[in-house]
């Protein structure tokens, strides 16, 4: 950092912090910004010091500090931060939602989707590290899963976003988060999202620029034709979220959305087989699971998978395929191996030779691209007893899994199979594996030793019935990088040494 004629940098830093006192928020924003870029000029610091008049209010000082940090951000990071002005003040905003929307809105201008997502992830982390976003939900491995925009930052970016015309004056602030920016949509607060969906033909002239339709948490699908209208009228959609809506079916017209890159139908009541005919060639993220439409009194609405699209091999742009279930013959599992860009796979299979061998073969073929893998073995006692008598009890895992994914970072196994122990072959030699989650695997001490030597493993989560012994012992030289060891469910009776 440069030294000026009037004194030394350490003095000016102390004086700036003194003027921030007693406002912790201002001090943090300043120190975070300085840490991100220590090469500030002495003149810039002097200007900030002069602007921080002692009798100024907290709001005024906070605005100066936010502006100080904001001005130094890369252009794309500024735009992504301003984009958050569409969300209501204090709302919990999911990391995955922001990443998907930033990319589909074209705010991250990179040549390919994977690179854009990578830069969007870096942008999110930067905004957290600078204190411009507050972490809300933090995952088991320390990753920020969602954030909240503080009052001071929200007020600052709302003014800047309006000035730079990122916020559309014709669209009510109340509904802005549901639509893409620059959509040209006219929707007053009194109109409501329900009315927009119900009267979609009325808005047809305003729809050509609409890329994002995020209806998460709304209850506007009491009639089946409403979703069909969306698929017929908003043909340039790139992002469609129906998460936690009351949608109960998926029309064949969903395939009219030829530009769709993100489809989110999580926590809906879409039937299991409704996804069989989905064929969206540009789709990047297929986020799915369904809730029981008739849960019991003590049921906490567990999530169930949907079926893998029957022509999954044609959707070769997919990078995320979550909570999907193989059909009886497991043919789709075999076709998944053609998805050369697949980074995250969450799949439910049965304890059958045909399912296990085809899944292992697909995992082997995707060894260069898979980063996250979640395997759930469904348990049907009656079916299991019949199949076990027909299919035998073991398979040669190395015949089908020729090589483990070399870049796998996250592995989750839920359930147990009589035909093969999945943890050892999937984890062995995975030098980049950082997080492992196990549930219902009924493992023993020796089974976990494959994890003890992994060089980058920093989080292990053992859920209900993951471990089946009364004691778990760590030796001093094992689990060298482990930072988080989380025990849940009935594992509490296990002694850990």
TrEMBL record:
Instruction: Give the superkingdom in one word.
Output: Eukaryota
GO BP:
defense response to bacterium; innate immune response-activating signaling pathway; plant-type hypersensitive response
InterPro entries xrefs: Disease_R_plants, LRR_dom_sf, LRR_R13L4/SHOC2-like, WH-like_DNA-bd_sf, WHD_DRP
- Which residues does the UniProt record annotate as the domain Disease resistance R13L4/SHOC-2-like LRR? 200-489
Question: Where does the Disease resistance protein winged helix domain start and stop, copy by copy?
Answer: 86-156
Pfam families found in the cross-reference section: LRR_14 (PF23598), WHD_DRP (PF23559)
Alphabetical keyword list: Plant defense, Repeat
User: Can you name this protein?
Assistant: Disease resistance protein RPM1
Origin species: Triticum urartu
What is the organism lineage in this UniProt record? Eukaryota, Viridiplantae, Streptophyta, Embryophyta, Tracheophyta
